[in-house]
Each structure stands twice: as C-alpha cells, then as structure tokens.
Amino acid sequence: ELIPTEGPAGLRLPLHTLPPRVARRALTISGKGRQLSVFFPPLLQQPFLELLNAVARAAAQSGAGEFEAEGYLPEDTAGEWTVLKLSPDPGVLEVNLPPCSSWKEFRSWMEAIEPAALSAELRSWKSAGFPEGTGGGCHLLWGSPVAGESPFYQKPAWLANILAFWQVHPCLSYLFTGSYVGASSQAPRTDESGHAFHDLELAVKFLRSLPPGDHRSLINETLRHLHTDASGNTHRSEISFDKFWNPEWSGGAAGLIEFRAVESMPKTSWTCAVVGLWSCLGAALLKFGRPVRMKHHGPTLHDRFLLPSVMLEDLSEVLKFLKSQGWALPAQPFEEIWNWRFPKILSWGQGGLIVRRALEVWPLLSETPLEGGTTSRFVDASLRRIELSCTPQFAQAYLITINGREAPVTRSAAGRKVCGVRFRATRLRPSLHPGILPHTPLRLRILERATMRLKAEYILPSDSQPAELIKTPTRHHQYFESKPLRPIQPSGWTCDLRF
C-alpha cells in the first residue's frame, strides 16, 4: 500500500519496508480514469532515454496513447536537451527559461509562453485596484550555459564597469522592479545594505587591477560579502553572486550573476524591451574604453530617485550613453513602462499639474512575538509617497497645498518642477510612530498666486485610483492651516507630512 499522503505514487512507495538488499529504484505506473501516469526513478541520461522510449512504445501498443511523465529528470550530460522548468512558489508559478544565446531567442520564448499561460488562466500581473507585477519577480541572469565557462571569470574589468554603471544609475534599480524597494526589499542595492561606500569603491577598483587570467575565486570572495542584504543574505541583493563561484553550495558554481530588481510585467513586449536594454548595456560596457566612476548618492538616493520624474531623467541619461556607444534604443517602450509603474492620480490644467504615485521605502521593524512562541519581522507599510510635477509656468501662476500646507514645487527634473510628498496612509500594528494619525484622505488645493483664489480642490486616494474632484469646495477664510511642508533632507526633494 502507498504511504497515505498527497503527491504522485512514485513519491509514496513504502520503500522502507523492503529488505535491505532489495533495490530501491522502481518505475511506478498509476492511472486515474483514462489518464496514465508514469513516475521515473533517478537514472543517468542514456538509461532514462531508453526507458522513456520503451514506455512510449508500450503505451502506444496497448492503446493507452499519451501518458503523463513524472519523477526525476537526469542531468543533461550529452548537452542535447532544452529544458523549461516550472516551479510552484507561494501564489505564483515560476517559469525558468533555458539559456538564451540571443535577444531574439529570449523573445521567441516569451511569445510562446504568454498564450500558453493565458490558456491556463494565468497571467504575469495582478490587480489591486490597478495592474501591477505579481510580486514573483522576473529575474535576469548573465553567464555561460556551460558551468565553469563564464566570461566574467576572465574579464573582471568588464564586471567592474557593470557594477559601477548600475550603482550610478538608480533608475535601473527602481524603474523595473516592484513597489517594495529599499534595504529590506527582495533586491536592495549595495549602497542600501549598510555597506560603506568606500568598501564598494575599493572592490570595483580592485577588480579593474587584476591581470589577465581566471580570477573566479578572488572575484567571488571580493564581492559576495558586499552583494547582500542588511542581514548578510547573498541571495537578497539587487545583483546577486550566490550562483557565481561557491563550490560548497549546491548550484553555486554556475558562473552566473543575477539581476533581481526586475518585476513581471503585463506585456511581453515590455519584458523583452528590458532584456534588450540589459543586453545592450552589457555589450556597451564591454566595449567602453574607460572605467565607469561610481557615485556616492548618500541621502539623495531615496530623497530624489524614488520620484518618477527623476527616474525618467536618469533613464534618458542611460539611453543617451547607449546611443553614444552605437546602440540607439527607442524610448517609447520604457516610457510606457514608466507610465504603468507610476500612474497618474490627477492631471489639471491640460497637464500643467500632474500627480503620480511614487515609490516609498518601508523600514524593517523589530522582532514581534507570534502565537506559538515564534517571532517575525514586519515592515512599516503604512507610508506612501506621491509626486507633484508641474510646468514652470504653472509654478509661477499657482501654488499647491496638501492638507492645508504649501508644497514647495521648486526642484527641476525632466523639464518640470517637482516635489515629493510622503504621508501616512494607515496605522496598522506594528508600525513606526503609532501615535501619529493617518493623513488620509489627502486634500489637494490649487490656488491662484495673484489673488489667492481657490481654483480647484481634490481628494487624493492612498492608492493609484483617480483623484476625486470636490465640486463644492470647502470655503475656509484661510487656506493655510499650518506651516509649509518640510523636506526630509535640508534642501531636499521630498517632504514629509509627519513633520
């Protein structure tokens, strides 16, 4: 009798009841209705193929026809297979593509997977009032399909330029990932994980100084302590090296670097555009004749680069660099992704004022006791951020207030005047500063500077739903209820309603 648990029959065999000298490797055949399932035991590649062909012939001769193959797939020692791996993850089905030698090959896989997924009622995005990524990620890996033959082993200067370029341009870290960013996210940048900037600079400079030769072990030892999250987890890093050269770990010596700050998207063409951008950057940085200099962003990293307009401006610099190196990519697909990631909440005066959802860093909280004697770490997800952007002409003619406080729209990005506003949307437990009440609903007013007359009043939702126009504005004798919004950093770009 099979062991009474869930799973295929081949994993439920009572092998522990067999005498010690009896082989514990068996082909298992089971049926449910007209569906035949065959569970293959662990075998080498050639015996597996012989057994697979024999089972197929027997099924055809007996009239059973097609059957479901389950069990263990041998290692492809002959290099003859193309393997598409499907792995169940909590809430999502993870699809791992085989190594692609070109962008066109990647695109062909994506165009084949999309209709197959839809036929199974699966999709690469979810809806929480607005479409967003599944949260499962769409990670990209560079290396060689043959373990131990990674080009990065012998080209550490190329690798150094890649790491430096990604560090200089935060749009590559924030524009294509999910809504959860920062040190406690699934893909923190190296300069978000508590590492000193000079240590990052020293590592990149050292890689450039290495002479010709195979430096896989030294590269790994130089980078693996820096490409981690704040707890030292090497997998949770924007550019992860846990599959680079770690012979002690299973699958850790594949010569791969993994870009984890890429989220699943609702359009295959968008995913292919991001992969094309990555491929062109890799090629350009291999060809680039001088070292890329790193930049110490400091507090400006979260103050500025979580704002959509600043990210768009940074992306323009990336595309400009590629064009100077001979790779002219169209901006349209990336601007479409940008508009999807940061939807408009409000557009007033023919686009003179635009309010968009922005990104926010959620801080990690202390350990919290749970029922059963365990503990857990939560993040404070009560904070949100929006971006106010307007034309210079609008900024001269009008002023904007949020909950009665003037928003200083004074910084310039992507040809517009910009201000970020952080606010508290909820007060769930646990959270930082539980005594501060939520600021929602946000009330935005547009006032004419010359006369201080109220031109329009809106209620801004805490998510990405459109703003609600107040058709009968509240008539206060004084529209300024307290001091102007204060930037988080001196001369900063983002203000905080909690101050």
Architecture blueprint of SSEs:
Layout: E1 28-32, E2 35-40, H1 45-62, E3 68-71, E4 85-89, E5 92-96, H2 103-119, E6 125-127, E7 131-133, E8 140-142, H3 156-168, H4 171-174, E9 180-181, H5 197-209, H6 216-223, E10 239-240, E11 257-259, H7 268-287, H8 300-304, H9 308-324, H10 332-341, E12 344-348, E13 353-357, E14 360-361, E15 364-369, E16 375-379, E17 383-390, H11 392-397, E18 398-402, E19 405-406, E20 411-413, E21 416-424, E22 442-448, E23 454-460, E24 468-469, E25 494-496
Parallel strand pairs: 2-3, 9-14, 21-25
Antiparallel strand pairs: 1-2, 4-5, 6-7, 8-11, 10-11, 12-13, 13-17, 15-16, 17-21, 18-19, 18-22, 20-21, 22-23, 23-24
Helix pairs in contact: 2-7, 3-5, 3-7, 7-10
Describe what you observe in this structure.
- The chain is of the alpha+beta class and 499 residues long.
- It is 26% helix and 22% strand.
- It contains eleven helices and 25 strands.
- Strands 12, 13, 17, 20, 21 and 25 form a six-stranded mixed β-sheet that branches.
- Helix 2 (103-119) runs antiparallel to helix 7, helix 3 (156-168) packs antiparallel against helix 5 (197-209) and helix 7 (268-287) crosses helix 10 (332-341).
- The model has no long low-confidence stretch (mean pLDDT 91).
What average pLDDT do the residues reach? 91
Uncertain parts: none
Largest sheet: 6 strands, mixed
Q: How large is the radius of gyration?
A: 27 Å
How large a portion of the residues is in β-strands, by DSSP E? 15-25%
Terminal CA distance? 68 Å
Structural class: alpha+beta
- Can you count the beta strands? 25
- Count up the helices: 11
